[in-house]
Specification:
By secondary structure, the chain is mainly alpha-helical. The protein contains four helices and no strands. The protein is 77% helix and 0% strand. Helix 3 packs antiparallel against helix 4.
């Protein structure tokens, strides 16, 4: 399968920016779970919409979520090792990998919806008032 890395990177950047906004604007509470999941869903949707088809959209949406999560997880591992020590950082990294696998599923589902929606879009490039013969 040919992977469109531009779509994956765009989905990751979308999720990253929305994640920062959600972290700043939504107070941490028991009801903010959906707000925390929203950036991954939107990022997967964007990555899926950049390709055509539900299958390709699911792959690209899942990849955008996984690649973005891995980048943030490695940064967390480095910073955790520097400030907390090796054992807490590695333990957090292992927990983060388990969470990452669970987050890939909603990203893939949102990507499939985005790819399906782009495939269903009808494009007509006629200007208003012209006839087709």
């Amino acid at each position: 399968m040919n992977i469109n890395w531009r779509a994956v990177l765009t989905g990751f950047l979308t999720a990253f920016v929305l994640g920062i906004l959600v972290a700043w604007l939504v107070p941490p509470a028991g009801t903010s779970g959906l707000a925390q999941a929203l950036p991954g869903l939107v990022g997967g949707l964007v990555a899926g919409y950049m390709v055509v088809g539900a299958g390709r959209g699911a792959v690209h949406g899942g990849l955008a979520t996984v690649v973005g999560g891995l980048v943030l997880l490695v940064a967390w591992l480095v910073l955790g090792t520097l400030f907390a020590g090796v054992f807490p950082a590695v333990t957090g990294f292992a927990l983060g990998l388990a969470v990452l696998l669970a987050q890939a599923i909603p990203g893939a589902v949102a990507g499939a919806i985005g790819g399906w929606a782009k495939g269903r879009r009808t494009t007509t490039r006629e200007t208003v008032g012209t006839e087709t013969r």
